[in-house]
Amino acid sequence: MLREKIYIASDHAGFTLKQEISNFLSEKNIILEDLGPFCNERCDYPDYAHLLSSRIDEKSFGILVCGSGIGMSIAANRHKNIRCALCNEPLSAKLSREHNDANVLALGARLCGIDMAFEIITNFINTSFSGGRHCVRISKIEEIS
Question: How many CB atoms lie within 10 A of CB 22?
Fold first, then answer.
């Protein structure tokens, strides 16, 4: 794994998949901090996207799960230095790391099965940023605020 720690959060729609992902990562002895929610009662995805995004640094990754992944990714990307990628298959997860230095992964629980989510996460956490020409592009993302 490329980072020391992973933060994970969801809303009510993503709760069950978040739990499955937490178990998957724990079995791999990955340091994981679950930021909630801790039950599947209705809650608002921006609250959890903002909480997780505020914790991300160069030593951590984040995983956000909601029904589609769209709301979480939009909310997370409002934060400076967050590059949240919504991925529905493993190749986009790999490319989001190689080309975009994504540090947060968003998943849609209603669109992605458990096994696919595990493949996506494995690609995301095990792929390095390739740097080079992509560094200039990444710096251009942060220019607008």
Answer: 18
- Predicted pLDDT at 143: 62
Considering the candidates 12, 50, 79, 99, report the single residue annotated as catalytic.
Answer: 99
Q: Is the pLDDT of residue 74 over 60?
A: yes
Instruction: Please give the model's pTM, rounded to 2 decimal places.
Output: 0.95
Q: How far apart are CA 106 and CA 76, in angstroms?
A: 9
C-alpha atoms less than 13 angstroms from C-alpha of 23 in its C-beta half-sphere: 7
- Distance (Å, whole) CA 50 – CA 48: 5
What confidence tens digit (pLDDT) does each residue in 42-59 have?
Answer: 999 999 999 999 999 999
Is 36 within 8 Å of 66 (Cβ atoms)?
no
Annotated catalytic residue 50: no
User: Interior CA angle at 34 toward 27 and 57, to 5°?
Assistant: 100
Contact 111, 145 (CB under 8 A): no
